[in-house]
Amino acid sequence: MSESESRLKKFLKPVLTVLIKDLRSELRTRYAMSALLMFIISTISIVVFSIGGGTTRIDVLSGMLWVVIFFSSMSGLSRTFVTEEERGTSMTLQLLAPPGVILFGKLLFNTLLTISMNILAVGLYGFLLSEFIIKTTGLFWLTVLLGSIGLASSATIIAAIIAKANTKGPLFPVLALPLLLPLLVVVIDMTRLSAEGGTITEALGEFQFLIAYIVVNVTASSMLFGYIWKD
Amino acid sequence: MEKLITAIDLKKEFNRRVIFQRISFSLAVGETLLITGKNGSGKSTLMKVIAHVLTPTHGTFIFGGDTSEGSYPHSRLGFVSPYLNLYDELSARENLIFALSIRGLDHQRFPIDELLDRTGLARFKNSPLRVFSSGMKQRLKYAFALIHNPSILLLDEPMSNLDSEGKDLVRQLMAAQSERGALIIATNDANEVEEYTTMVNLDVRV
Predict the structure, then answer these.
(1) What is the domain extent for residue A155?
(2) Is residue B1, in this structure, part of any structural domain at all?
């Protein structure tokens, strides 16, 4: 095994340990899952009651889907660092591992949580709003996947910042909106395109943007996190 | 004798207020550093700086012969502190497995059950911590700090929340640690520590 492979393996084991710990904690406490689920159900219900039954344009339906996803994420994804602060376990993590391990463990957890919750949100949205028909499913699910990863990558670093602040709850969407706005504009457009039957080739530019967005976010987060996490 | 830890000219400030400064020490196997001072004198802050939980405003550490900048000593240190909490939703055993795995260590190579037995928690090893009393949690903190065989054990107010049986256990653990590594103890009751090599009194430092 080469030295770089060995170093990667040494880095990945602690990262996966943080992920497994968070998954186990979440399954037992359901802090983030309950918040996300409640938000998904309540916001979709409001959308159904307000625009369901009539004829609604597909671009409006595409936008509403991501509004549901955005606000649901805001309610649940901040929990990953806030619960560590509230329970007084941040110091335990600081003692046990370097900041990079914690960041990537939390990022993986938030990504898994976002993807699974978004699949549920999309399923429920499509089931309750019969007008929301996707013609290019491959393009749509790729959009949901990359959108979820992008959302989680931004939400994780913002969660780390607000966990250290005195006013945690209201600060999260305030900081997240400007960072997530470019992502939301692109994924809404791609969702509309997939509903209108557009092809993946037509959306290549948008895919490049989403991948670049994720790479920039993760790189910037890994550079900043050490300063946010300590002191 | 090779030094396990050397601290050079440590200083910590919060909002331009100096908590402590000009702290230097070095410890080898079998040596104990006692940190004393009144409440609010900065004992816990100094312990957090030594544990690398806080970054010093000035100063540096050398662990063993490792002088590389930014080296992370998480496998060399064990820390017991009132500010350090464990995961209530995990069992005692799961907390210890977590402490090993996150350091990249194979938990099957470490005597988890034996240590839980030694700290009097064997019967509760699969119970979530939320059902533990504060004394039981304090005992588990010792197991958590010792499970990876650290060369340096940091104890902040080591006797807090413990009954007389628990205090005896802590004395035994401290004696065992002295044989294989170094001890750093912060307390405002110096009588708790029978023997020490070096003392830092934070009341007279700043």
Answers:
(1) 11-229
(2) no
Chain B, nearest residue to A7 by Cα: B104
Nearest to B90 among A25, A94, A230 (CB): A25
Kind of pairing, strands B198-201 and B152-156?
unpaired
Confidence of residue B65 (pLDDT cuts 50, 70, 90): low
Residue B188 lies in a domain: yes
Domain membership flag for residue B176: yes
The answer, yes or no, to whether residue B49 has pLDDT greater than 60, is yes
| Confidence grade of residue B183 (pLDDT, cut at 50, 70, 90) | very high
**CATH code of the domain in which B126 resides:** 3.40.50.300
User: Are the beta carbons of A21 and B87 separated by less than 8 Å?
Assistant: yes
Least confident of A44-58, A110-124, A128-142: A44-58
Task: Please give the Cα distance from A83 to B136 (Å, whole number).
Answer: 23
Q: A216 pLDDT exceeds 90?
A: yes
**Are A69 and A152 within 8 A, CB to CB?**
no
| A2 part of a folded domain | no
* Domain that residue B140 falls in: 29-53+74-195
Task: Enumerate the residues of chain B whose CB falls inside 8 A of the CB of residue A17.
Answer: 98, 101-102
Least Cα distance to A160 among A174, A172, A151 occurs for A172
Q: How many domains does chain B have?
A: 1
Structure-derived torsion over alpha carbons of residues A160, A165, A170, A174, reported in degrees to the nearest 10: -60
Q: What percent of chain A has pLDDT over 90?
A: 59
Structural domain includes residue A1:
no
Look at chain A and report how many structural domains it folds into: 1
Quick check: is B40 in a domain? yes
Identify which of B65, B46, B81, B47 has the alpha carbon closest to the alpha carbon of residue B5.
B65
How distant is the Cα of A21 from the closest Cα of chain B, in angstroms? 7
Coil, strand or helix at A83: helix
Assign A33 a pLDDT band (cuts: 50, 70, 90): confident
Q: Does B104 touch chain A (CB under 8 A)?
A: yes
Residue A111 within any structural domain of the chain: yes
- Where is pLDDT greater, at B140 or B163? B140
Q: Is residue A224 part of a domain?
A: yes
Residue A169 banded pLDDT, cuts 50, 70, 90: low
Q: What are the DSSP E strand ranges found in chain B?
A: 3-14, 17-28, 32-36, 58-63, 77-80, 152-156, 182-186, 198-201
Rounded to whole angstroms, the Cα distance separating A126 from A129 reads 5
- What interface predicted TM-score (ipTM) does this complex get? 0.88
Chain B contact present for A55, CB below 8 A? no
- Among candidates A5, A77, A3, which has minimal Cα distance to A40? A77
